[in-house]
Design a protein that fits this description.
Helix content: 40-55%
Strand content: 5-15%
Number of domains: 1
Oligomer: single chain
Order of helices and strands: HHEEHH
């Protein structure tokens, strides 16, 4: 049985919904993730992988059980 991974865009929409005050340093990466489907996509000259990694490194203030689940989901995409 294969578990289908959600798109980066879907995960980013959930993060935006759950994170009331997005950290200023994470916001540009969250905005970029809204334009990405898979970890193999590109956003202008940046790889989706680098955008997700930069988001994760700037999202330390996104806390709680839901935040842990969403961050783990991003990491599981191969970032």
């Amino acid at each position: 049985m294969t578990i289908e991974k959600r798109s980066i865009r879907s995960i980013a929409l959930d993060i935006r919904k759950d994170w009331a005050k997005v950290n200023y340093a994470a916001k540009p990466y969250l905005d970029a993730m809204l334009e990405l489907n898979s970890i193999n996509d590109k956003y202008y000259n940046d790889s989706a992988k680098s955008i997700v990694l930069y988001f994760l490194s700037n999202a330390a203030s996104f806390r709680g059980e839901r935040a842990k689940v969403l961050k783990a989901e991003l990491k599981a995409l191969g970032a």
